[in-house]
Amino acid sequence: GAVVSQHPSWVICKSGTSVKIECRSLDFQATTMFWYRQFPKQSLMLMATSNEGSKATYEQGVEKDKFLINHASLTLSTLTVTSAHPEDSSFYICSARGGAGGLNTQYFGPGTRLTVL
Amino acid sequence: AQSVAQPEDQVNVAEGNPLTVKCTYSVSGNPYLFWYVQYPNRGLQFLLKYITGDNLVKGSYGFEAEFNKSQTSFHLKKPSALVSDSALYFCAVRDSLNGATNKLIFGTGTLLAVQP
Prior knowledge:
- The complex is a heterodimer.
- Chain A is built from no helices and eleven strands.
- By secondary structure, chain A is mainly β.
- In chain A, strands 2, 4, 5, 6, 9, 10 and 11 form a seven-stranded mixed sheet that branches. In chain A, strands 1-3-8-7 form a four-stranded antiparallel sheet, with no helix packed on it.
- In chain A, a hairpin with a 2-residue loop joins strand 7 and strand 8 (76-81).
- Chain B is mainly beta.
- Chain B is 0% helix and 52% strand.
- Chain B has no helices and twelve strands.
- In chain B, the strands form three sheets. In chain B, strands 2, 5, 6, 10, 11 and 12 form a six-stranded mixed sheet that branches. A four-stranded antiparallel sheet of chain B has the order 3-9-8-7, with no helix packed on it. In chain B, strands 1-4 form a two-stranded antiparallel ribbon.
- The N and C termini of chain B lie far apart (41 Å).
């Protein structure tokens, strides 16, 4: 299997509130999950790498206190955007490594569209 | 450092004609190469990969790609394009070299437009 789900698929929130996005590997165990951000008509920007049971590794320039990542189990990782502001509006995509393609292949969720008013 | 380049922002092709989406890469060790497709407001769907073995890799939806080490290329191809193939295509690479970053690096994407 190689199915990755994300919830919610879209969310609209007021500035200053926090938003949690869930990423699940539905039919395989993923020791490593990734969170990406994509701006319109641009490529994916890796935000952080999440390993089950340990702290996430954030990419340079990504605020770890703003984008909280938790990878509590082999099938679930969550991204919480804390005190969201309009500039955080974006398309967030998670990815999990493993599944039918083995540890070399990453499978992606359908994405979450975040709009901060 | 690893990198991947997709030189074309957009590729236009008529339905039924062959299509090629270009990708070149740079890594220190051996490359792990991938193609993904993205439809509007959706995540990325895995198409195919090259890890080792036969240079010609066949993937989903009739797509294939050829690994060319001397030209450091991994172009995506399909013999006969469909209108439904219209989407954004991403090439990605990861370096197999021990100690190199284990991150998947993406190209900037190529928009494929298939005209009926």
